[in-house]
Structure formats: structure tokens, C-alpha cells
């Protein structure tokens, strides 16, 4: 069976049971015989929690597991930033994990419209010093677009990014794009190993 420790197994089963992780065969419309995706992640579960991003205990569980993961990796950072609404919720839980007296503050993003009425990412909240190091946190990495946009905004504000911490790698190439640009990307799960884990656990994975 896929080599997950107890806490990762518990989280994997929980994500599956609440419907956050699903595996569905999707094909390109122009090429019906060509598979476009097998993995599907739905982090907003209206049927379960009335539109809330999970119950607080699950967010807390994810944040603490990511925090412990960052300790094992010996990551060094001054502040953290969550990308997307889900990533921000996870980052907040991460910041509240036991830190043995070390406080880690949050910088928050939002989307604003530029002169061309295009939605762009901007910092909405936070206090920082020039050259501080930021740890990026997100729920999923598929394409690298949102991460690169966030990094650009942070760099324009004299902040440095070296490491990105993600719950699931969707294995669509985004992780490799970021790594080619010099960023370290660390993930708790890969989509394919989750699929194998659930198959080996006798879960009915394909919807």
C-alpha cells in the first residue's frame, strides 16, 4: 500500500469521505478519445457544509500537518501567504499551529480590477519589512499561473519567495514549471498516489 503515515492516511480518507477528492474520467471535447483529466478536487462542498470550506476541525488538521511537514523540511521564512480562498484558510490554520513561542504573521491577497478592468492579484493586508522571506501555501498545484502571479506581487513589494507548500500536486505540470524557475515546491500528496491509495483501500474511486 502507498506509504502514508497514520496522519496522512487519516487526512486522505477524510478528504475523500467529504468529497474534496474525486476521480472522474474527463475527455477533450475536440478529441473525445483523448483523456484530459482523471483527478478532480472540489474544496467547496455546498452539500456538506452549506458553502463553507470544510468544518474548522478539518482545516485545522490540514494546517497542522503542513506545519509539521515544514518543520521536517527545515523551511525558513518570516511570513506566510495563502493563495486562493482555500489556501488562505489553510495558511491561517498553519499560522495557529504550535510554534513554541514563535509568531508567524499572515499577508493576505485579494483580486482587484486594473485600468483594463482585468482582475489582478494585490496585497490586501499585512505588515512586512523589505527582504523578508515568504512561504507560499495553497491547496492544489495544477498550472503555475496563480503561484507565479502571487510571487510577482510579493517581489514587487520587496519580498522574497523560495518555497511553496501545497496539499495536493494535480500532476498537470505546474510543479515542474515552478521548479524550473527556481522555486522549491513541497506537496503532502500527489494525485496519482492518492488514486492508488484509495484503490488499495477498496474505495470506489471513479465517479
Q: Could you explain the architecture of this structure?
A:
It is a single chain. The protein is of the alpha/beta class and 207 residues long. The protein is built from 7 helices and 8 strands. About 7% of the residues have low confidence.
Question: Gist?
Answer:
This protein is α/β, with parallel strands linked by helices and 207 residues long. The chain is built from seven helices and eight strands.
Structural class: alpha/beta
Distance between the termini: 22 Å
Helix content: 25-40%
Pattern of helices and strands? HEEHHEHEEEHEHEH
* DSSP summary, beta strand count: 8
User: How much beta, percentage-wise?
Assistant: 25-35%
Shape: globular
Low-pLDDT sequence parts: 32-36, 45-53
Radius of gyration: 18 Å
Please tell me the overall pLDDT: 79
Across the major sheet, the strand order is 5-4-3-6-7-8
Number of helices: 7
Could you give a short account of the major beta sheet? 6 strands, mixed
Amino acid at each position: 500500500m502507498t506509504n502514508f503515515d497514520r496522519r496522512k492516511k487519516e487526512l486522505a480518507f477524510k478528504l475523500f469521505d467529504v468529497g474534496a477528492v474525486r476521480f472522474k474520467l474527463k475527455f477533450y471535447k475536440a478529441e473525445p478519445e483523448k483523456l484530459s483529466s482523471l483527478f478532480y478536487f472540489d474544496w467547496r462542498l455546498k452539500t456538506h457544509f452549506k458553502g463553507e470550506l470544510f468544518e474548522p476541525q478539518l482545516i485545522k488538521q490540514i494546517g497542522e500537518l503542513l506545519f509539521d511537514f515544514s518543520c521536517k523540511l527545515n523551511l525558513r521564512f518570516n511570513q506566510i501567504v495563502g493563495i486562493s480562498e482555500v489556501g488562505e484558510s489553510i495558511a491561517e490554520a498553519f499560522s495557529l499551529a504550535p510554534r513554541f513561542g514563535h509568531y508567524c504573521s499572515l499577508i493576505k491577497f485579494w483580486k482587484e480590477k486594473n485600468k483594463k478592468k482585468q482582475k489582478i492579484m494585490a496585497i490586501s493586508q499585512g505588515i512586512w519589512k523589505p527582504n523578508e522571506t515568504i512561504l507560499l501555501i495553497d491547496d492544489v498545484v495544477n498550472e503555475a499561473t496563480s503561484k507565479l502571479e502571487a510571487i510577482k506581487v510579493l517581489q514587487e513589494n520587496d519580498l522574497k519567495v523560495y518555497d511553496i507548500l501545497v496539499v495536493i500536486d494535480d500532476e498537470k505540470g505546474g510543479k515542474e514549471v515552478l521548479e524550473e524557475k527556481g522555486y522549491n515546491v513541497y506537496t503532502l500528496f500527489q494525485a496519482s498516489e492518492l488514486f492508488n491509495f484509495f484503490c488499495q483501500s477498496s474505495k470506489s474511486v471513479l465517479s
